[in-house]
Amino acid sequence: MRAPAAWRRSEKAKRADARDEGRIFSFTTVRSDDGDGGKTIAIIELPGKEKIISEIVLPSGGAAPRIGDRVVPVCRIITRGPPIEYGSKWALLLPGG
Amino acid sequence: MPRRVFVVAAGSSRFGERWEAGQAELAKEAWQDAGFRGKIDSLFVSSMASGAFTEQEHLGPLVLSAIGSGSVPSVRLEAACASGGAAVRQAFLSVRSGEHDVVAVVGLEKMTDVPPDEASRILSQASLAEDEARTGATFPALYALMARRHMHEFGTTEEQLAAVSAKNHSNACLNDKAHFRRTVSVDDVMRSPPVSDPLKVLDCSPVSDGAAAIIIAEEGVARGLSENPAEILACEQASGPLGLCARTTICGIPAAASAAKLALEKSGAKLSGIDLAEVHDCFTIAEIMALEDVGFFPRGGAAKATERGETALSGSVPVNPSGGLKAKGHPVGATGVSQFAECFLQLSGRAGKRQVKGARTALTHNVGGSGATAVIGILSGEVGRK
Fold first, then answer.
1. Which residues from chain A sit within 8 angstroms of residue B115, using beta carbons?
2. Is the predicted ipTM greater than 0.85, yes or no?
3. Which domain holds residue A60?
4. How many CB pairs under 8 A join A and B?
5. Which domains are assigned to chain B?
6. B338 membership: H or E segment, kind and range
7. A6, A72, A83, B289: least surrounded by Cβ within 10 Å?
8. Do B137 and A41 touch (CB under 8 A)?
């Protein structure tokens, strides 16, 4: 991808809010040719905002997502700092997480 | 006063992996199949991504030379997978308005010269590139998201989706131009490898090479060019947001519903009077949503109706008698034109073993991308009335 698109995405990342919490509206796992299990992509409903499409990071152990499950930005779990890669990766929130 | 517009000839190349044929050869094959010997006033060519697939742009004159139609105006038109329908609509408007009397539309796509992952990347350019494509949401993924939500809201099952594939493969066995002429069962579909769950390999249309052509004319000229012309009663187009996230629903395609409503109003046709439909089944869920968007069945009703056989060739509303995108094939720029060609064959009683008995009125449904563009056509023939 050329630089301007990458720049626009990074600007979008800066505007993100790590406190966001959403729910899965729909999801799918895209299988990859190399047999690594593929990536899970979801449409996420965010209260008061337009839905977003994003990759979902699943917990190890293989818990399958369901429509309505809660998700948060990955950065909130990993760094608790300002969001990075907003919109590209969200994590399924485990019970009590 | 707007003029009446008729299809006077139509043809198609064989769809499939056509490594031996380039774009010009495919166009010529479709043109020769149409068997049209008259003169045209202009040419519309539809193709989604000829430059990306073949490094050949400027298709208007390329195709015009291939079909030997002189020096008339020629232009290529792009609207993703709805390029064909959109080109037919432009041709329809140019004849209806009185600007031209006879106009040709040739749709084509040459997709198999690139590896499958490259084809997938090229096709993804018709989605919302910065949000959807960069996330890895290929078109199978986008339609899988729709399917999952449809299953959640209406209880649609994977077996019901598989029934769409089985039905369209069965129809394609009767079409000698189809990419896949073999039957598949619901079990075959269910056992096929997952692509983007809940969609499996046999829920997805193939990457195909192919071309289709139709020639349309104003009423007076049409009567002299064809014994059985089919009138285009309406050809309407509507648009919606490019990305799924901005839509009011993902259990249907609002642009298709809008275009269908307009087409029915303008044509004066009633849904109960439609004898067959060629709809955009790029994925099995897409056919289900198409039937609900047009209004053949209520929301949540099309999957059950398909399972009951109501959309089979012998059903109450035969859908995709050609085999559809799923089994006839999906050379994207050709698809919308091919739908009109199939309806013309059906309405003129020349569809052979897949002929819908007594067909008088037909509907085409062509969608671009994940549904941001939709074109609906309604055609009426005279043979079925005789």
1. none
2. yes
3. 3-92
4. 79
5. 5-114+206-385 (3.40.47.10)
6. helix B332-347
7. A6
8. yes
